[in-house]
Amino acid sequence: MSKGRDVPALVAGARAGDARSVARLISMVEDGDPRLREVAAALAPSAGTAQIVGLTGSPGVGKSTTTNELVRALRVAGHRVGVLAVDPSSPFTGGAILGDRIRMQEHTTDPGVYIRSMSSRGQLGGLAAATPQAVRVLEGAGCDIVLIETVGVGQAEVEIASLADTTLVLLAPGMGDAIQAVKAGILEIADVFVVNKADRPGADATYRDIQGMLGLGERGPGDWRPQVVRATAVKNEGIDDVLAAIAKHRAWLDESGRLRAAHEHRAAVEVEAIALGTLRARMGNLRDGTGLSALAARVADGTTDPYSAAEALLAELGL
Ligand code: GDP
Prior knowledge:
This protein is α/β, with parallel strands linked by helices. The protein folds into two domains: about 50-255, Rossmann fold; about 270-315, no CATH class. It has helices at about 5-15, 20-30, 35-45, 65-75, 95-100, 125-140, 155-160, 175-185, 185-190, 205-215, 240-255, 260-290, 290-300, 305-315; strands at about 50-55, 80-85, 115-120, 145-150, 165-170, 190-195, 225-230. It has a seven-stranded parallel β-sheet with strand order 3-2-4-1-5-6-7, sandwiched between helices. Helix 10 links the parallel strand 6 and strand 7. It starts with 6 loop residues before the first helix and ends with a helix. Residues about 90-100 have low confidence and may be disordered. Guanosine-5'-diphosphate (GDP) binds near residues 60, 61, 63, 64 and 200. The site of guanosine-5'-diphosphate (GDP) has 15 residues, from helix 4.
């Protein structure tokens, strides 16, 4: 795939800020390229150099509009920014859907911004493994802030959003979002709530709902109290408040020692996803041969039990 360029050249290119090298490396991550090990090893020293901000919320709530405005403000403040638009709900078409997000186009010619949509085509361990790897590519390219935008608020999105150091949950008035957020477990992962579309009727009620729900949550003395911010992304209003809330959370992460914990959580999810993916692939290889299919036949016949069969399968894998 590299068309003559080997991994060290691509990594060097990414480090020098070459957008095409960055794009190629992220494609390798998506595709589960066999040389990913080499890429990961080369990029390992860049880990943890960017602040990772997750952005999630129901479709139509204003995520891409907000991301676009955040990118603009971060660029003005001199940051180098990466944006990963991740669609866990449609692994095969995610790239295509998120790929042509028109509102992002104003940034495509800016060399200080990398925007990329991601699906998990061939990656062992899916997006849970691919997202941190893509983040590391962006860190290697010198991004000091990476925004991870997900499409919705399902379990998969919550998992991806929880990979961030700071998680933003967007809500909008009149979408029943506050209720949905509770259902999806979003309340637990949100560090900052953004009540977007503050120009719409009902925004104050949504704001109060969230504040009310936060009041019910149990929190220890040193714990973070999620911030609630109002914004009207289409008019670029409230974006500075969102950035201030992100900065405040970052300061709390530093002071409380939780930044390290966030990094270790991300690494743990990544390592576990790779390990499970590898295991699944190896078991898949057994499926066609004598291994799993023979054991399954015995379980189906009632000549052995599933626990013994699982043990035998793991033993075949040397575990
Ligand atoms: P996403 O699906 O969450 O990424 O949402 P989009 O950013 O694509 O926005 C969905 C629609 O809401 C678009 O038509 C936006 O122009 C509109 N929108 C975004 N932010 C605001 C806002 O603050 N106020 C109003 N009235 N509309 C907004």
